Amino acid sequence: MTGGMTGDLLLRVNGEARRCPAGLCLDAVLVALGYQPRLVVVEFNGEILPRDRWPAQAVVESDVLEVVTIVGGGS
After folding, report:
1. ∠ at Cα 40 (2, 53), nearest 5°?
2. Contact 66, 49 (CB under 8 A)
3. What confidence tens digit (pLDDT) does each residue in 15-61 have?
4. 41, 70 in Cβ contact below 8 A?
5. Integer CA distances (angstroms), 17 to 7, 30, 53, 65, 70, in order
6. Residue 55: which residues within 8 A CB-CB, separation 6 or more?
7. Fewest 10 Å CB contacts: which of 43, 53, 68, 74?
8. C-alpha span between 27 and 55 (Å, rounded)
9. What is the DSSP string of 1-36?
10. How many CB atoms lie within 10 A of CB 9?
């Protein structure tokens, strides 16, 4: 799959190899991977990354993301 002029890159997401379009910032990568950014917390290369940094955080080949989905409810 060739996405525009930049192609794809390979990331490690929650321990699995995943491909996504290259040239995106973290918030767009999350959407491309099927997440709803407002409902997740992200550890980016070992650091919990504040949500306000996502639009400016470039994602490159071999970056490691741990994505935790926030689930509402409880008792």
Report:
1. 75
2. no
3. 999 999 999 999 999 999 999 999 999 999 999 999 999 999 999 99
4. yes
5. 16, 14, 24, 10, 22
6. 25, 26, 27
7. 74
8. 6
9. ---TTT-EEEEEETTEEEEEETT-BHHHHHHHTT--
10. 19
- Please, are residues 61 and 9 in contact by the beta-carbon 8 Å criterion? yes
Q: What are phi and psi of 62, to 5 degrees?
A: 75, 5
What letter does residue 58 receive in the DSSP assignment?
B
Quick count: other Cβ atoms within 10 Å of Cβ 40?
16
Structure tokens at 34: 């099927």
Structure tokens at 51: 């949500």
User: Which residue in 56, 19, 49, 52 sits closest to 68, CA to CA?
Assistant: 49
Query: Rounded to whole angstroms, how far apart are CA atoms 11 and 64?
Result: 6
Whole-model pTM: value is 0.84
